[in-house]
Amino acid sequence: MARTRPAGPSISVITSHRMAGTALTSFLASRLPGPVDWLAPGSGAPGDASIVLSMHEPADATPRIIRESTSRRSRVVLVYDSAHPHRELLDAAALLRVWSVFDMRQDARGLVERARDAAAGTGWSLDNVTQSWNRALETKEDGLSPREQQVIEQYFSHPNATPASVADDLGISVNTVRVHLANVRRKLIGRHTRNREALRAALIDRGWLD
To answer: Cα–Cα distance between 133 and 78 in angstroms, integer?
Structure first.
């Protein structure tokens, strides 16, 4: 008689690459108690945890895939390849508050643990990258995160600085710089910050810029 798999939190492997998705699904299903399935991006509701294989998706599609999962209250584990440019991807993951990240070049047993903990809603205690992001993102509304502070200081370091020049200096995308500037303006709610000088004045008044 076939043994019934015990019920547990569900996990979805999300990728448009069928072979990679089904292979990882089979791997995780053999090691985790709950149901594991493969989903193509946008093809259905994800499980309690979503394992997003970013290396098989276009760079501009990954944020949308993450948002689709988090909007359905699925905790995202973002799998990336450290051998390829990934700083921009990790910046986006931080802004979108992924649950955890995993470098595909690490021991696969680490991914099993991350998937299990994400499905159960338990933080991954050894994930130093995610912990540092969470500390930055949880900065109180009356202060700037380390990355926001860095962007602001660079933006006002030269009178002709632009989001594009800041992006080049910091090695991040122009869109990421604009997101940080928008977040800073949001924290200055009630102040006029539409133009550069007004933003600078508001930051100085708050003590966030010298």
So the answer is: 14
